[in-house]
Fold C-type cytochrome.
Amino acid sequence: MGTWGRSILPKHVGWVVALAWLLCAAVAHADQPAVPDTLQQRIAACTTCHGVHGEGSSGSGFFPRLAGKPSGYLVLQMQNFQHGLRKYAPMEYTVRLLTPQYMHEIAEYFSAQQVPYERKPVPALAPSAMQRGEQLVTAGDPARQIPPCQACHGKQLTGTEPSVPGLVGLPYDYISSQLGSWRTHTRASAAPDCMAEIANRLAPADISAVSAWLASREVPADTHPQPAGSIAPPLHCGVLQAQGGGA
């Protein structure tokens, strides 16, 4: 081969390879279906664990119900995972790039869902333990400065707008694990963190008692949260003061 052939062939080969790569990339991109820009697509990561309508996982008591909870509460929890106040790697990864607009859109969807509750197993506790659970939920324990759950979560335990969740219908596993998370500082909220204070005043047996009593309650006919301003928080709670959740 002459000198001219040796010098020009590599250039032609380079252009051919580059053009072939661009064509292949274009074809591969054309074969990929476009991701639909819909709410159902955006909540797919949520519904995988929490159910299509946020009804909670039927296979595990650790994935709670989102349906019907105040939208302000749901937004706050996504923000808490995003800011490191709540620790759970899959949720932290899921929400890390969500914009405020997306979080509000997702929260409004689940808040509006009204679907049947599914009863989860409750461990068998002694009658005295169940009585203790009922006492803590409805009357608290003044001697240990533990207010009743009903003081913030509502008389029917369905929550209060805009940021206090309902407790009725939640599984035993989830309630007990979250109270434990407040004690171990893997769950937190705006200071002063009243739930952390309360959880640390509860004995381990109290956590079991409260969780079992709540998980065994019948769900009321009306599960909507109480309106904003209908409660007077017994403790200073940063999240309520910031969002106007108290009376």
Summary: The first helix runs from residue 3 to 31. Residues 1-9, 13-21, 24-30 have pLDDT under 50 and may be disordered. DSSP finds twelve helices and no strands in the chain. Residues 152 and 233 are 6 Å apart (CA to CA).
